[in-house]
Amino acid sequence: MTEKENGVVDERPKEKMRGPVVLRRDRRDELTTTDQRLLDSRGPSDWVHTDPWRVLRIQAEFVEGFGALAEVPSAVTVFGSARTGRDHPEYQLGRDLGAALAQAGFAAITGGGPGAMEAVNRGCSEAGGFSIGLGIELPFEQGLNPWVDLGVNFRYFFVRKTMFIKYSQAFICLPGGFGTLDELFEALTLVQTKKVTKFPVVLFGTQYWQGLYDWIKSSVLEGGKVGEKDLALLHLTDDIEDAVRVVKEAHQAWADTH
């Protein structure tokens, strides 16, 4: 890939991550991912013999993640679309949010990819903060973006999700797709069931998220599937200062009890 921005040419070749391994050029044409091979039970029954050994690889990913992130300062995970272009207003918003988190003393954790994730990592790094990317092996090319200061690549989504939760004090969701929605509802479920505490979930961009919020309120809440306290776990905003305030207040409340 060669892209010119502000006079800087990025000549990094296309790449694909396979756990901690980087595959570039014609070496990146593998059609399946580790997650897919683990979860797809179709085919020969030799998986009976190979799956127990996969446990060791899964264990190794947990150990590697815990070791790499053990000394990370207070951090906020920001999710958002990998498809957000650098010329899109949401990209600049991500940069501003990343910078604001850094200035508030928080590290910024993203999925490490392009789009909104890159924007947040970039804003955080440019503001002198600690910019972290937790990548994942995908069937298409997606390396860690160049604004990640500390990067860890995972083969398994569930290991990566554990790292997002364990090392974050809050989630902020920029407009995003299925991956963002997946992380959003997993975080809400963990907070609702008290698996994690003092963990705010911020939906940033009311025009994008209002419809989802209204549906939860009018259908899920009204149908008795969640309670008022559950709905209150979500905070909608269009203001970066407001989002950072919610994070800081929750973090201070947590610190006061520990």
From TrEMBL:
Signal peptide: none annotated. Gene3D superfamilies: 3.40.50.450. The keyword Lipid biosynthesis does not apply. This is Cytokinin riboside 5'-monophosphate phosphoribohydrolase. Keywords: Cytokinin biosynthesis, Hydrolase. Belongs to the LOG family. Residues 1-29 are annotated as: Disordered. It catalyses: 9-ribosyl-trans-zeatin 5'-phosphate + H2O = trans-zeatin + D-ribose 5-phosphate; N(6)-(dimethylallyl)adenosine 5'-phosphate + H2O = N(6)-dimethylallyladenine + D-ribose 5-phosphate. One of its GO terms (cellular component) is cytosol. GO terms for molecular function: hydrolase activity. PANTHER family: CYTOKININ RIBOSIDE 5'-MONOPHOSPHATE PHOSPHORIBOHYDROLASE (PTHR43393:SF2). GO terms for biological process: cytokinin biosynthetic process. Its EC number is 3.2.2.n1. It is an enzyme of class 3 (hydrolase).
